[in-house]
Structure formats: C-alpha cells, structure tokens
Amino acid sequence: MKNILLTAGLLFALISVSYGQTYLDSTINSSTKRILFSDPNAFAIGSYGEAHYNQDIVEGTYQNGNMDLHRIIMFMGYKFNKNLQFFTEIEFEHVKEVYVEQAFLNYSINSALNLKGGILLIPMGYVNEFHEPTLFNGVERPGFDKYIIPTTWREMGFGLHGIFKRANLKYQAYMVNGFNSFDGSARLSGSSGLRGGRQKAAKATFRTPAFTGKLTFYGLNGLRLGVSGYYGNTETSMFDGLDRTDNMAIQTADSSRVGIAMASFNAHYSIKNFDFTAVGNITSISNSDAYNEFTGATLGSQIMGYYTEAAYRIPLNRGEQYPRLIPFVRYENYDTHHAVGDRIAMNDNYNREILTTGIGLHITPGTIVKTDFQWVKTAANAKPTNILNVGFGFWF
Length: 396
Description:
Layout: H1 2-22, H2 33-37, E1 43-57, E2 66-79, E3 84-93, E4 97-110, E5 113-121, H3 144-147, E6 154-164, E7 169-177, E8 180-182, E9 209-217, E10 223-233, E11 235-236, H4 247-254, E12 259-271, E13 274-286, H5 288-295, E14 302-312, E15 314-315, E16 324-339, E17 351-364, E18 367-378, E19 381-395
Parallel strand pairs: 8-11
Antiparallel strand pairs: 1-2, 1-19, 2-3, 3-4, 4-5, 5-6, 6-7, 7-9, 9-10, 10-12, 12-13, 13-14, 14-16, 15-16, 16-17, 17-18, 18-19
C-alpha cells in the first residue's frame, strides 16, 4: 500500500510539474515552445491565422455579409544560450494592417524566476494570452474580450514570471506603460471603454508606470483558476512640456487622464469530454467626471462583464482525439456603462447580452472549421440582432 501511494504521489508530482512548465509563459502554446526545451542556438518558426464570414440576419431586409481574412500571425523564436531566449509575433490583420503583437527577451534563472522585457501581453482574463483559433470556441473571440478586456492588449514593459511547483502556482508581475487617454482628443469612450487607449508599443507615451499581475493555480486535475489585476493612471499629451510650477495648467492636464483599477478571474474545468469556462472582470475608473467634461467623452466610472461557456468534445474515430466535433453554448453579459458619474446619463445601449451556440470541427490539433449563431441584444432594445458566423483557423 505504501509503495502504491508513493508511486501515485510521484506520478501526480510529475503531472503537476509538466503542467506547470506548460504554463510557464504565455507563448508556450505556440510552436516557439520548442525554444524553452531545446539546445542553445535553436531557431523556431510557426504561425496561426483565421478567416471569417459574418452575416447579419434582419427580417424583411437584405443584409450584405462580410468575408475577411481576419489575421495571419508569424511566430519566431531564438535561444541564444541555456538562459536567454527571444520571442516575437508579427501580425497581419485584414490583409493590409501590420502589427507587432509580442517581442520580448526572456531570461530564465530557474523555473520560479524568469526575467522578461519587451512588448508583453497583459495577463488579464484568458483569451488575451491564449487567443489562437484552436484554443477558443466560436468563430469570433467573445465580445467580452473586445470591450471589457481589450484583446489583444499588449504594451511595453518588463517584470518577472515563473512557477512555484510545490504550490502548483504560476505567477506573472509586470510594470508596463499605461493607456493613452488623450492625444488632442479623447481616446476612451462610453461605447468601447478602454479599447481606444491601447498604445500597442507604437511610440507609446510613458510618464507614470502601470502595474499588472496574475496568479494561476493548476494543482487539481482538470481545473485551472486564475486571478489577475491591473492598476495605473492613463497617459496624456497634455503633460508634455508642462511647467511644473503652473498649477492651473497641471489641473487642466489632470482632467485629461483617469485612474484605472481592474480585477479579473478565469476558471476552466474539464471532466471527461466536458469543458466548462467562466470569466469575469470589473474595472473602476477614477476622475471620469472631469475627463468627460474636458474631452466631451461619455466614459463610464465602472465597466463590468462576464461570460460562461459549456462545450462537449465528440471524437469521430474511436480511440483517437482527432478529428472531433465540439458543440458549445456561451452566454455573455458586459456593460461599459455599469456605473457612470454625475455629469453623464447611463446609456443602456452599452449594456449588452450575447448568446452564442455553435459547433467546431477540430480536424487536427492545429486545424479547425467553425460555425455559430449569435443573438445580440442590449438593455435598451430587447429584440435581438441575429448573426451567422462561419470560419476556419490554423495553428502550428
């Protein structure tokens, strides 16, 4: 009996260590993961992408659909020595837009302590870090991840990450540049919240740092829990060249920025062929009254959202994981006017609900074809808008 318990304990420890190592870094789900486990001077390249067809369905009228090669991303990674690696992602969106989604150096001291600097993904929620099309259900990413956690959200910064193996915990802690709230006009709004303030490392304004971090627990079989936070003031062009003794000008400049405190959780549980997901976020925004008065914006003082999802994996060949069908259903509720200040009215059009149901054909681990149907409504209009989506994605 003692030997059986010892063997079981060792197996559990090995599984935990392996799982923990897998979640050591947000790029680990790409082909560049080979860099972390390879010999020095190793180079890896990979890619992911997705194409979408979106069709609004409105009774009694014709509606033009939209076909879009939404994104193609190229991964590259290089290992200089046993400790130092470089990772990058170059993204092409809608055929003609080019972005750098990630580009950072990673210095591994040991599994518990790694140094990281460059263009970093902000570790909030789930999809912002793990957004390859084979890793989420539905043709489009959840609306929650567009308006509440403005995916893909990345900024310049540096910090620490690693895993505590005995505690089955992964941690991330970074200092980054903040959102840009004003560059001659308002960058933040009531309808899209903070999304327009992402700087994406493109000549980013930086005066005061923001801080973000995440803890992920992976110690129970099939369960992963994450909590994350973000705190900082936004950046504004009004402070550039400002006289430190000009109190009136400083007060005016202060009206062009806001403070942001964000908290998020994500939970994922897999049992047999079922997958359950829950993600939530709440953001408090200080100084929104002064900001709205100065800029003419309608930014809320609190943003909130969540979604829950259930999916079931159906293997098509007995004894094999792929190909497989994945029917799913997801409910989202998010509101960029969850609370407002005294000087603007709450807009119920920004309180949105989305019910999505669909199915994916996961042909191989790196290829998937998807279709879904969405009912979208707001608190101001209970009659839903109907949307049909079809798409495919790849990842290697």
